[in-house]
Amino acid sequence: MAHLSWPAYAERIANGAVVLIPVGALEQHGRHLPLGVDFMLAEAVALATAEHVDAVVAPPFVYGYKSQLRTGGGPQFAGTVGLDGHSLSSAITDVLRGLARGGADKLAIVDGHYENQMFLTEACDLAIREFRQSGRDGVKIVQARYFEQFDEAILKRHVGGPPLDLAYEHAGVFETSLFLHLFGDLVDMDAAPEQAFKEFPSYDCHPPHDDWVPATGALSDPHRATAALGREIFDACVQGMVRILETEFGPEGDGSN
Amino acid sequence: MAHLSWPAYAERIANGAVVLIPVGALEQHGRHLPLGVDFMLAEAVALATAEHVDAVVAPPFVYGYKSQLRTGGGPQFAGTVGLDGHSLSSAITDVLRGLARGGADKLAIVDGHYENQMFLTEACDLAIREFRQSGRDGVKIVQARYFEQFDEAILKRHVGGPPLDLAYEHAGVFETSLFLHLFGDLVDMDAAPEQAFKEFPSYDCHPPHDDWVPATGALSDPHRATAALGREIFDACVQGMVRILETEFGPEGDGSN
Amino acid sequence: MAHLSWPAYAERIANGAVVLIPVGALEQHGRHLPLGVDFMLAEAVALATAEHVDAVVAPPFVYGYKSQLRTGGGPQFAGTVGLDGHSLSSAITDVLRGLARGGADKLAIVDGHYENQMFLTEACDLAIREFRQSGRDGVKIVQARYFEQFDEAILKRHVGGPPLDLAYEHAGVFETSLFLHLFGDLVDMDAAPEQAFKEFPSYDCHPPHDDWVPATGALSDPHRATAALGREIFDACVQGMVRILETEFGPEGDGSN
Amino acid sequence: MAHLSWPAYAERIANGAVVLIPVGALEQHGRHLPLGVDFMLAEAVALATAEHVDAVVAPPFVYGYKSQLRTGGGPQFAGTVGLDGHSLSSAITDVLRGLARGGADKLAIVDGHYENQMFLTEACDLAIREFRQSGRDGVKIVQARYFEQFDEAILKRHVGGPPLDLAYEHAGVFETSLFLHLFGDLVDMDAAPEQAFKEFPSYDCHPPHDDWVPATGALSDPHRATAALGREIFDACVQGMVRILETEFGPEGDGSN
Amino acid sequence: MAHLSWPAYAERIANGAVVLIPVGALEQHGRHLPLGVDFMLAEAVALATAEHVDAVVAPPFVYGYKSQLRTGGGPQFAGTVGLDGHSLSSAITDVLRGLARGGADKLAIVDGHYENQMFLTEACDLAIREFRQSGRDGVKIVQARYFEQFDEAILKRHVGGPPLDLAYEHAGVFETSLFLHLFGDLVDMDAAPEQAFKEFPSYDCHPPHDDWVPATGALSDPHRATAALGREIFDACVQGMVRILETEFGPEGDGSN
Amino acid sequence: MAHLSWPAYAERIANGAVVLIPVGALEQHGRHLPLGVDFMLAEAVALATAEHVDAVVAPPFVYGYKSQLRTGGGPQFAGTVGLDGHSLSSAITDVLRGLARGGADKLAIVDGHYENQMFLTEACDLAIREFRQSGRDGVKIVQARYFEQFDEAILKRHVGGPPLDLAYEHAGVFETSLFLHLFGDLVDMDAAPEQAFKEFPSYDCHPPHDDWVPATGALSDPHRATAALGREIFDACVQGMVRILETEFGPEGDGSN
Q1: Which of C105, C175, C221, C232 is catalytic?
Q2: Of C3, C157, E185, F91, which is least packed with CB atoms within 10 Å of its CB?
Q3: What does the pLDDT average to over C71-95?
Q4: Which 3 state secondary structure label does DSSP give A142?
Q5: Catalytic residues of B
Q6: Residue B130 with chain C: CB contacts under 8 Å
């Protein structure tokens, strides 16, 4: 979308294209992955999805909710930069309003950051409330985490072991494989930590206990990650997104569903 | 910064690097330029600046304040997506807080969108107020519009005529030249409008008079734009940014000034 | 705490008591359970916990975040009343500030509503940020969902079948058993739905698809619920909370950990 | 309402029941009364009112606006926990919205805390503004302090002396009598202070002069309080509330007025 | 203060002057008084007070909280313009911060609008909270309604009858007398309503019952108002304010109290 | 407007009068001008404009956005008191809402403070958004800085030299001339600074470099200011405002344009 002129974009929208909005984070991902993992993967999934359905991809909303200890390692790592919940929700509501005002009524958020979910939910709810007050009842917003749109059997087949808890998959096999597949030259597997799967207590503490998190910032062991696995996961996530959009907006992108 | 791991980023910061934060907009730029002009140019200037001073570039904050009729064409164009003022200020304050918390105390906002200025000022002011309450008196934030960091004599020499009003330079000679230089394949000069320089009344009206704006969305005539002029402007802007950072943070990036 | 005079409360706090803050919701729980399930269970767990550790229980913050389709059935049921995210976070931050101002520095939130978690996290984070600015570094806040403080093996042993997804346990075996144990006369098992375990899509839609949810409002089949199972779960949750408080605030409630 | 299932609640609302929303505070009430006085009395009045009119009682919104020196003793007492004005107004607006969305259009706030009034007024005003934008013109909200719904002649007849200023009645004859009648075992008359009626200056000071308030926290002398007086006041308040609801929503609860 | 240059103002502050901040409203005051009554009277009292103590008067904050039916006649009258509670509190907090930042630590709000009180209280409380976080513990804020700083015996002696309820004194004997004394040519006694004292119910309704208010907008009968009474009231209010400032900031304005 | 009774105001509005809303600031203006310059001039222009078109003038919104170094000298001067951006926008939105609710649909903001512009724009945009949701599509708001409504040729003819940058005209020839014309006895030309035109860097720094600003607070040399020039500028500004109102609301004030 950032590369389209407004008339080109307007034509796409008028013809029924969905607008995909990648939302990510700027957050540490261990010593072997870069800080941009979450928004880069969300954008990559969105772009690949847009090759299969009639969709344009908005530039990513880079900054997400504050990293939490048990799902992202927490704020104690340099380079982890998060927004307050209200700021994030307000800004995303504004983005949704702006897109709807410009004629788009098929919107889909592609979320790449575990901690974002509820604040995106709030943003969508506030936007829908406002749309109803403004007589824009026809706008529909899909909200999906790309990393929940694949069959975990893939991971199990490649990696073995018990079912993974995606909450712990921060900088682990899942994200590392995707990065090896998509942005291999940004991965430094030599720096990948050798560590057992991290187990967290079942609660949170504020201020956070920094020592709950491995010093590397990775919450699980990424060594079994491979580009081949990354490709398989990626394709599955993209197919999952495609199915969602077809279900919600019609296989022809005509919103008939 | 998005491509660095957190330890690599932490080392840069510890050694005194400035963090540059490009802020842009998603906003129509006529029929010949794409919607992403403002954040793409802000990021390009930031990246080039970082080749001359010790700086890392944060991923761009893509979405800016709502487009205004007299400086950006206004909200009536599809694809123009802006944030409310409070959302923008809050989110940028959060970004500044997050960077400072991670150890960075040399921050510089590179603004690429005319309407952002006062809301970025508010964000910086609120951040500094909070830093003082938190005992972080050492953080300094530079706030600069990249498009004010060059000598307008350049434009005059190339283009002739009266001094340009940068407020009207939306999708005009200035931005088009920069885009021809940096992202030439995203410019469609065949679609560039033939129009006299737009003159606006000296006030605003709400709701906006859409007919004040040319149907193309360009506020001035971009035809005299060239890649050569773009290069000259770009280099001047980058040099301007470099001088600012050296002035404020020291030629060695050691903050001695 | 609501039944203590201020001097009696002040003495408890001065002697090191933890303040437990139950947070719940007013939300449909099927035809067989009442609207108050979430805050009533959170308060019941808190009160039982306070019999084992040195703690006082604040009156419950009854109203929680807006019910979501995939975890609570959603807003389409009469009697489901939720707060916006910012309202909830702000009010809880205020409660934490007020307790800390009154001398309490051992605080623990006992959360009984699935959708509350991130907004409570935000409230705690904002409170801690403010405490630091105010020189109140000694305040520690534990944030725990009571329903994650037991071994799911209990459920499996009683109920059999695959591991339960607590997100779906809304008005299911888990909550119904607890209610049979604690508030049996408020349960109408004759009204309990016969339904297969509900499976949801892997994404959200706004406005929500009301037809994703069974007309009863229960997301899974509560028929295998028993008071005996409820007792076992309840005791396990209370023990879990006790362990957390002892870990974080010391076995003597002296905060030595 | 917390004890009703959603279908039972929905039926009551469909048949025209009013929803009563008790709002209170957690605030010191001298050495002889507990911290929960305000929300406990508001709830008690609401429950008794609901025996005389067709009404359901929502669970109390426990936490109210910050205690002020001249009406509640102020924040210097441990156990006094108040919300910021905006938090309280926002949360109550949300509660009103949620109830209205679920079909209730006869709403009544029963306020038990002196300092709440204007912030509840703000909440109601914001809710009505939003309802109008949403085409929900039929919702009516009554806002009443229960302690203003009786004839002060009762107090005068029992207690004698000059007319009481209810602002000073914090933990005095009025509230103590009500508590003796309703929750007698939570009153410790031995701890009741012997003190002359407190006279305050005619202005406020920030930060507050803590020494304006008796060390006990009671603003007037509660010794003449009796359970008999409490019963008379209570019945009068309930009758007052009943009259209000009948006036505003019709004697049959049919909203014909 | 508006007429002083900054060095002149700075000198006054350095010498210990109090800054008085009149806060009013723009609100109907019957057919015989103008819309500006509340801020004009607050400013007049502040200016007269400043002749007796060492004080400078800030320009009035004209706009106050929304007019309520039972104290100001309500929003249904053209020309009644009020702020939302949060807007008013935030703006006044900002004014207090700005004055404190400029060196003033003796601040006094002179309130002329009945409905403002709690939102000014909130503003002062938030300002003091922030001052403490910023190490500005020395700032003291007095908050006084000018119309509570006189002995009601004056009114009784002039007017006779039962004690007045100031809440009903909107556009009645009190304000009309003051206006006759201070701004006599803005009073149109021929337009003053002949009406019995208005009695209101003991609760509020939202949306408001406009017919509770006399069509004139005056809540009581102003006919016994005289300029002589106005002078006596005015002098008493000013003396009351002077006493408050001397009590709180010392007779020499040296803050020794 | 402050001097009109509500029926008199209502009649003016019903007959089509525009409501002018002066917005200013309390801000240092050098040693020779008082702190109230911005709101006093905005109000003076509005009052004079109202003599030529059918308009009533609301009392000024005195307090504006925070003074910035490069346009107003910045916050380091005693007596400079500014609002946060969100507070200002919210309060002005409220004023616009209140005026519209009272029947006015021709509104015009007369801005006298350089830094206010974008926050007033935000206020107008939010008000219009709300008006549309409320079915008040007919409200039109003009937003004009009075100081941009004259031909700079006037200044050039009187003063000579290069075109002035109004951003630097803070307490310079422009404002000083206007004050000499309108409020001559509040000008102390003996205190006017002898200084070269101030040149600022092309960026901002936070916290601000106080030494960028002359110690006097004046950003340019006011010595060539005269009352005669002030009269000419003033008349031109008023005529400019008149033209704008006639253009937008019709020469007969009938809104036909």
Answers
A1: C175
A2: E185
A3: 95
A4: strand
A5: 27, 29, 38, 113, 115, 170, 175
A6: 133
Q: In what order do the strands lie in the sheet with A106-111?
A: A55-57, A18-23, A106-111, A140-145, C204-206
Q: Is the pTM of this model over 0.90?
A: yes
A251–chain B Cβ distance below 8 A for any pair: no
Q: What is the amino acid identity at position A99?
A: L
Nearest to E19 by CA among E194, E128, E142: E142
What is the pLDDT tens value at each position of chain B, 257 positions in all? 999 999 999 999 999 999 999 999 999 999 999 999 999 999 999 999 999 999 999 999 999 999 999 888 889 999 999 999 999 999 999 999 999 999 999 999 999 999 999 999 999 999 999 999 998 999 999 999 999 998 878 877 777 665 566 666 788 899 999 999 999 999 999 999 887 667 889 999 999 999 999 888 888 888 889 999 999 999 999 999 999 999 999 875 444 44
Contact F130 D132 (CB under 8 A): no
Chains that touch F (3 or more CB pairs under 8 A): A, B, D, E
Of E216 and E197, the structure prediction assigns the larger pLDDT to E216
Nearest CA in chain D to F132: D133
Asked if F257 has any chain D CB less than 8 Å from its own CB, the reply is no
Contacts of F61 (CB under 8 A, 6+ apart): E62, E63, F21, F22, F23, F24, F39, F91, F92, F95
- D16 three-class SS: coil
Place of tokens 């009682």: D57
SS3 content of chain B, % helix, strand, coil (to 5): 45, 10, 40
ipTM: 0.94
Neighbouring-strand partners of residue C28:
none
> DSSP readout, D44-97?
HHHHHHTTTTTEEEPPPB---BPP-HHHH--TTSTT-B-B-HHHHHHHHHHHHH
Catalytic annotation present for D113? yes
> From CA A244, how far away is CA A236, in angstroms rounded?
12
Q: How many angstroms separate the CA atoms of D139 and D136, rounded?
A: 6
Alpha carbon distance C135, D240 (integer Å):
48
What pLDDT digit, counting tens, does each position of E37-60 carry?
999 999 999 999 999 999 999 999
Pairing state of beta strands C204-206 and A140-145?
A: antiparallel
Q: Which two tokens stand for residue D139?
A: 């919702």
Asked if A134 has any chain F CB less than 8 Å from its own CB, the reply is: yes
- Burial call B29-65: b when 16+ CB within 10 Å, e when fewer: bbbbbbbbbbbbbbbbbbebbbeebbbbbbbbbbbbb
Q: Where are the beta strands (DSSP E) in chain A?
A: 18-23, 55-57, 106-111, 140-145, 204-206
Q: pLDDT tens-digit profile of C157-182?
A: 777 665 566 666 788 899 999 999 99
Q: Is B133 on the interface with E (CB under 8 A)?
A: yes
Alpha helix segments (H runs only) across C213-254: 227-249
Q: How far is CA F156 from CA C226, F147, F150, in A?
A: 90, 15, 12
Angstroms from A36 CA to nearest CA on chain C: 22
Nearest CA in chain A to C204: A143
